[in-house]
Design goal:
Blueprint lengths: L1 E5 L7 H14 L4 E7 L18 E5 L2 E4 L3 H12 L7 E8 L6 H4 L1 H11 L4 E6 L13 H17 L10 E6 L9 E4 L11 E6 L5 E6 L12 H6 L2 E7 L18
Parallel strand pairs: 1-2, 1-5, 2-4, 5-6, 6-7, 8-11
Antiparallel strand pairs: 3-4, 7-11, 9-10
Helix pairs in contact: 1-5, 2-4
Length: 261
């Protein structure tokens, strides 16, 4: 198997090393793992692409490239430049430092990389490691992802239905904030919503008197509704959420039919 890996934490991020090990196990002795990742951190850029400016691509080493752009840029750079001789069979994005459950999904560059792969017709999985008091001080906070990642992806690939017309499926996988031995299992889960909490801003003055705003994340230990992603993660489960790049609210069409003329 030929696998492309990317992320949004940057090419030197420890989670990318974890992902490379997962991809190597999946690719097998006759496979290939290619890395095309951002030259610097791109957290929170979502599915952003560098549409109005060029991006510099550097061949760091064999099958390893850094891109001055977003994760979605990296996927396009890989498919249309770095890997022109043969497209990958699978794209993996992550392993993100921190969860991409609930509303985090909408901001995530990790998800954006997987979404771009799906739009380009390649099977894709985004992987993120939830952080919390039970794993953040471990020697390897990514050990749940490292231990269970390859198995989860194999299960996803084996269960994925044939692609028909329309937007291709991609997957959002979140590993719980626990040690690998304490993982309770794998659960298919819808995207949840953390209630009464949102991203916000904190103002700060520089020494020169200029005013800046820092983005402040929400409390990540707040569970979502029972059976949804973050709630299951906080209960120790790996969650798998199938997604498509279709933002249509299909469930509202009957209620809104009076709009039609």
């Amino acid at each position: 198997m030929r696998i492309l890996i990317t992320n949004d934490d940057g090419i030197h991020a420890p989670g990318l090393k974890t992902l490379h090990a997962i991809a190597t196990a999946l690719a097998g002795p006759d496979g290939e793992v290619w890395t095309v990742a951002p030259a610097y951190e791109q957290s929170g850029v979502g599915h952003c692409i560098s549409y109005t400016k060029p991006m510099m691509v550097e061949n760091v080493s064999d099958r390893r490239f850094s891109v001055e752009g977003s994760p979605a840029d990296c996927v396009m750079a890989a498919l249309h430049d770095c890997m022109l001789d043969a497209r990958p069979d699978l794209v993996l994005s992550g392993v993100n430092r921190g969860n991409n459950a609930a509303e985090n999904t909408l901001y995530s560059g990790t998800i954006g990389g997987a979404m771009e792969a799906a739009l380009q017709g390649i099977p894709a999985v985004a992987l993120s490691q939830y952080y919390g008091p039970e794993n953040r001080d471990l020697d390897d906070p990514f050990e749940a992802a490292a231990s269970h990642g390859a198995d989860v992806i194999r299960r996803i690939l084996d269960a994925t239905p044939p692609h028909g017309s329309g937007y291709r499926l991609f997957y959002n996988v979140n590993f719980p904030p626990v040690a690998a031995a304490d993982v309770q299992g794998i659960r298919l889960a819808p995207q949840g919503m953390r209630r009464d909490t949102t991203f916000s801003t904190i103002p700060q003055l520089s020494p020169s008197g200029r005013r800046f705003l820092w983005i402040k994340g929400a409390d990540q230990q707040i569970p979502t509704d029972a059976g949804t992603d973050a709630a299951l993660n906080l209960d120790g489960y790996i969650t798998v959420t199938p997604m498509r790049a279709d933002l249509t609210a299909h469930d509202t069409f009957d209620a809104l039919k009076a709009i039609n003329t």
